[in-house]
Amino acid sequence: MKQIKVDANFLEPNQRLNIKKDFDIKQVNRILVQGIDQLGGLAMSTPFFRELRMAFPNAFIVNLVGPLTLGLMQNCPYIDEAWLFNKKESFKLIKKVREAKFDITFLASGTLRTALISFLAGIPNRVGYDEDGTAPLLTVQLHQQFSSRYRPENIFDMLRAVGVSPNNIYERENWFSQQDQQYAENWNKENRQLGKKIFLFNPFSTDPKRRWTNQGWTKLLQALQELNVLPIMMVAPNEVVEAKKLLKTWSQESIAVQSYSVTKTAAILAQVDIVMGPESGFVHLALGANKPNVVAIFNVLPVRSTFPVGDARHIGLIKNDLSCAPCYLYRSRDVCPYDLRCMKELGADTVLDAIKKFL
Q1: Averaged in consecutive runs of 10 residues, what is the pLDDT profile of the chain (359 residues)?
Q2: In sequence order, what are the residues at sequence separation of 6 or more whose Cβ sits closer than 8 angstroms to the Cβ of residue 33?
């Protein structure tokens, strides 16, 4: 059995690596990646799947995911199969995973449930971060305090921890079918108006603290239409009712509200000109579409933690001249003690000036 050779230079001061047992990485033939169930997390992790396939070109790779990201992963060119993770059928899943005889699993989701599944299924090598009480179940255990480090680096570290050196190419990808591509092209023909750029936006976030103000959206949308820009609100199916209420509040009922599957949304994003929203899965999905310019609003996290700040095609905005910014109150149940000054003081003029750079 060969010892894992790890380049310790990748470890930051607040990061630790504990390899509990050695194994020969060259003998890995069957790989299970558990997660990722959130759009934002998956979008930032697409480079990981690309690097994983490059490192193991002949391996059988399975991704275990929830229903939200299953459609995208079924079109991923870097894995062999995508399995649906259903919490209600965990015992059946454990049996299925055990029968597949995986050599190693990467716990990209970092939850106790997924760590327990891989442990009970007898996967001998389990790589992940020791979050949510997972430490005793891991054989290659990483730890890192919450920081502003670019998130794709964290998942790359799971490869580095087993002796694989990724190429550090962070270009994101969206994966969808040829049917989705054709649907998006037809969508573009139907929605494209002569001489107008399409501004696709989603004002929602699973964390209410990250949402921009009604006043900001009202003023911005009025100004964009005066600049001959066509705004379209694209939301998830469960957001349509609230979206229409928002437009009424903003006196913008003429703006279309549209909703599609995740894969169709990903394909449509590649057809539009500008995309905007708070830091959310929708914004991260847009960053993988390559064509549109993306304007994202931040407050809870620093821009550099999840946004490609070195890419001039996109702009991340944050009111960072406040003593409390960024606050790292990233859990939705966290309460802002300053009444969200960061969002209230980020004016529409500032956002409009950023968008004008792409007009």
Answers
A1: 48 69 90 90 94 97 95 97 90 95 92 92 95 89 80 90 89 97 97 93 96 98 97 97 98 98 98 97 95 96 93 96 91 93 97 97
A2: 49, 52, 61, 62, 63, 64, 79, 105, 106, 108
Please provide residue 244's backbone torsions phi and psi, each rounded to the nearest 5 degrees.
-65, -35
Burial of residue 32 (CB within 10 Å: 0-12, 13-18, 19+) is: buried
Each domain of the chain, given as residue ranges in start order, spans 8-160, 179-356
Q: Tokens 């956002």 label which residue?
A: 351
CA distances from 8 to 16, 18, 301 (A): 10, 11, 27
Within 13 Å, how many C-alpha atoms sit on residue 177's CB side? Answer: 10
Q: Assess contact for 218 and 246: CB atoms under 8 A.
A: no
In CATH terms, the fold of domain 8-160 is Rossmann fold (3.40.50)
Domains 8-160 and 179-356 alike in fold? yes
- Distance (Å, rounded) from C-alpha 115 to C-alpha 128? 9
DSSP category for residue 194:
T
Residue type, 117: I
Specify which residues 142 forms β-bridges with: 17, 129
Rounded distance between C-alpha atoms, residue 74 and residue 176, angstroms: 8
Q: Which fold has domain 179-356?
A: Rossmann fold (3.40.50)
Q: Which residue has the tokens 């997924």?
A: 114
Q: How many CB atoms lie within 10 A of CB 320?
A: 12
What are all long-range contacts of 318-324, with beta carbons under 8 Å and residues at least 24 apart? 318/342, 318/346, 319/343, 319/345, 319/346
How far apart are alpha carbons 277 and 203 in whole angstroms?
A: 5
- Regarding pTM above 0.90, the answer is yes
Residue 220 sits at φ, ψ, to 5 deg, of: -65, -45
| Pick from 52, 298, 289, 32: nearest CA to 169 | 52
Amino acid at 277: G
Distance CA 100, CA 141 (A): 23
